[in-house]
Amino acid sequence: MKTYLVTGGAGFIGSNFIHYMFRKYGDQIRIINVDALTYAGNLENLKGLEEKYHYEFVKADIRDKKAISAIFKDNDIDYVVNFAAESHVDRSIENPEIFVETNVLGTLIMLNSAKDAWEDKDGNFKEGKRFLHVSTDEVYGSLEDPDDYFYEDTPYSPHSPYSASKASSDFLVKAYVDTYHFPAVITNCSNNYGPYQFPEKLIPLIINNALHGKELPVYGDGKNVRDWLYVDDHCKGIDMVLNGGRIGEKYNIGGHNEKQNIEIIHIILDTLKEILPDDDDRKKNVSEDLIKFVTDRKGHDRRYAIAPDKIKKELSWEPETRFEEGIKKTIAWYLQNEEWMEHITSGDYADYYEKMYGRR
To answer: Which single residue of 96, 209, 319, 334 could bond 161 by disulfide (Cβ 3.0 to 4.6 Å)?
Structure first.
């Protein structure tokens, strides 16, 4: 049985990855989920897994060297999947320091802990160990030419404290590969969407605000372009890179779904109007009149677009979910999980840890 250490597993992509892996492998794998449970970490994302003997949650911060080292000491970790990161650009503009501490120092501590656990006295690493570092397309900067795409060899040009901190962590992982021959791979993904996403991000924010008749804020002219990737497709890609990717390589994982932000908002509104029954009072709230253009974000990149050619060629991965299908599945999930959204927006989700683990 392979043991996976998943950091940030109570967050959006991390929790979806854990669900995906158990759906695919069942009891053939063991997962240790390490999360500090900051504002975006929500154990309600993992309801139903608490009593599984092959799943364990550990509340710990990746900046805590002692705690992370103890996890490696107490467990024979085969794979590390490092999701843990501060990830919201607006928050990084307001407080860059926490992004450097978590995304750079935290990654360094994860690398050192894995290196100490996996390296033998001759400087070689135990067979079968792998460290996958999950990163972002934002490290590449902004595309000016509409015919350009991000490739694995695109020079880094981060423009926000968030993307700069992720670029730094990528370089640390690469340095460990080059210096120590550390068994690591890097993935750089485009914008994810799907279930369990914290509602400060565009898609769940617009869904929730529209249902409640609140303003739908749009930065600048709303024409910034992002490449949207359904989260399950991303999880599949991570699993494939972890098991089949070449050590020391990086793989771009993108959705082939470029959309302007304003397009996303109109698609959500149209889909809500289509899905909501006529007798649902919230349907009358859903209106283009709620759209409000606001002052643009500082250093706002204009366009991101990933070319996932390498992962398709080497591992036969490609996105399976068209945006039109994925957004319907996403909206349906939020409509079916209103209590989850209520807990998130009220702050009650933070009590779940105490309820489930406080007396253990």
So the answer is: 96
Average pLDDT for 264-282: 94
Fold of the CATH domain 2-357: Rossmann fold (3.40.50)
SS3 per-residue string spanning the chain: CEEEEEECCCCHHHHHHHHHHHHHHHHHEEEEEEECCCCCCCHHHHCCCCCCCCEEEEECCCCCHHHHHHHHHHCCCCEEEECCCCCCHHHHHHCHHHHHHHHHHHHHHHHHHHHHHHECCCCCECCCCEEEEEEEHHHHCCCCCCCCCECCCCCCCCCCHHHHHHHHHHHHHHHHHHHHCCCEEEEEECEEECCCCCCCCHHHHHHHHHHCCCCEEEECCCCCEEEEEEHHHHHHHHHHHHHHCCCCCEEEECCCCEEEHHHHHHHHHHHHHHHCCCCCHHHHHCCHHHEEEECCCCCCCCECCECCHHHHHHHCCCCCCCHHHHHHHHHHHHHHCHHHHHHHHHCHHHHHHHHHHCCC
Q: How far apart are CA 55 and CA 330, in angstroms?
A: 26
Look up the pTM and report it: 0.94
Active site annotation includes 162: yes
**How many percent of the chain have pLDDT more than 90?**
86
Task: Say how far apart CA 327 and CA 178 lie, in whole Å.
Answer: 40
Q: Is 137 a catalytic residue?
A: yes
Sequence spans of domains, the chain: 2-357
What pLDDT score does 358 carry? Answer: 64
Residue 359 has pLDDT above 60, yes or no: no
314 is catalytic: no
Across the strands, what pairs with 130?
Answer: 79
Cβ-based neighbours of 251, under 8 Å, separated by 6 or more: 152, 185, 186, 187, 188, 237, 241, 245, 308, 310, 311, 314, 315
- Give the end-to-end CA distance of the chain in Å, rounded to a whole number: 26
Selected catalytic residue, list 138, 227, 232, 239:
138
Q: Which of 61, 78, 86, 137 is catalytic?
A: 137
Choose, from 55, 79, 162, 230, the residue flagged as catalytic: 162
Phi, psi of 47 (to 5 degrees): -55, 135
